[in-house]
Design a protein that fits this description.
alpha+beta; elongated; 2 domains; about 25% strand; four-stranded antiparallel beta sheet
Length: about 210
């Protein structure tokens, strides 16, 4: 299958988890080569080898992830969007230009099987978040992307990582609203909401996603 035929959510998730998979696999392979069936080193030489192998596994895995990202992005139908997503998720760092985005939003959404309305994870009939061209709605508040400011980050909650987007904007009554969206509350695929925010930000907003 060609990379250009893979939808953008799958592509992002492959890049996101690749470093978390490649480095441990390399470390386990090195551990097996050095120790064999044993679980503990027998001497200081083996301990030194293990420390060196751990460092080498990290460096090799990191460089391998960067190489994979560059290759995948170069073959993708949406290289700019992928580079920005990689910056936002801290998969890698790329310099993003201010060049206007040439993207057919309707085709992009259909091509990647995305939604315009998202629902509560515990109540599939209750809409939480909606995208409508230059408008975005969160619960009962509607905002214009022209003055919509947002910041994405992750935080630890026990053993899990929660993705959060804080925003500020003026609602339909011209009232300044500051709030935050926790993606785990919304029924969607991993990183789907973030992709929708980035695309709408590039097309209708201030392009804040370019500066991560």
């Amino acid at each position: 299958m060609k990379i250009s035929n893979v939808n953008i959510i799958t592509t992002v998730n492959v890049l996101y988890y690749s470093g978390r998979v490649i480095i441990p696999i390399l470390a386990l392979v090195a551990l097996f080569i050095i120790l064999g069936p044993r679980t503990h080193p027998n001497n200081s030489w083996e301990i030194t080898l293990l420390i060196f192998a751990a460092g080498l596994s990290f460096v090799t895995g990191y460089l391998g992830t960067i190489a994979l990202k560059k290759y995948v992005v170069s073959k993708s139908r949406y290289p700019l969007i992928l580079r920005i997503i990689c910056n936002v998720l801290r998969i890698s760092r790329s310099r993003i230009t201010n060049k206007p985005v040439d993207l057919d939003l309707d085709h992009f959404i259909k091509d990647n099987n995305l939604s315009l309305t998202y629902y509560d994870v515990n109540n599939p009939t209750y809409p939480i978040l909606s995208f409508n061209k230059n408008k975005i709605s969160y619960f009962t508040q509607e905002f214009d992307w022209g003055d919509f400011k947002w910041d994405f980050y992750t935080k630890r909650a026990g053993r899990t990582t929660i993705e959060v987007l804080e925003f500020r904007g003026f609602n339909q009554e011209n009232t300044s609203i500051k709030d935050r969206i926790e993606f785990e509350r919304i029924e969607a695929r991993k990183h789907e909401i973030l992709i929708m925010f980035i695309v709408h930000d590039l097309l209708f907003g201030k392009g804040l996603s370019r500066y991560y």
